Task: inverse folding
């Protein structure tokens, strides 16, 4: 599902116009991004948790050359789904 399809489906479900729905989704994503910049977690009830985690510095070995390289630390965004959603996906969408 692409963004256009998602916004249209969401607009239909909520009864808002496509333009209003797009603005709300844009605001949601922007607000979440602001919190990620501050290393805050964002919890969406009954869906899951978005967290910023720091991956530590590590040494990587290139398998073809055997050369060792230092990979610097970095921040990554992870998603932990709600247990209910995790089970639904695991069962192929059947409850």
Result:
């Amino acid at each position: 599902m692409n963004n256009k399809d998602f916004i249209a489906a969401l607009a239909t479900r909520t009864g808002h116009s496509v333009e209003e729905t797009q603005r709300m989704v844009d605001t949601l994503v922007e607000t979440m991004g602001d919190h990620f910049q501050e290393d805050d977690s964002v919890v969406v009830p009954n869906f899951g948790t978005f967290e910023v985690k720091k991956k530590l510095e590590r040494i990587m070995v290139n398998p073809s050359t055997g050369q060792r390289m230092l990979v610097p630390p970095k921040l990554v965004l992870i998603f932990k789904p709600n247990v209910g959603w995790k089970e639904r996906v695991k069962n192929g969408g059947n409850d």
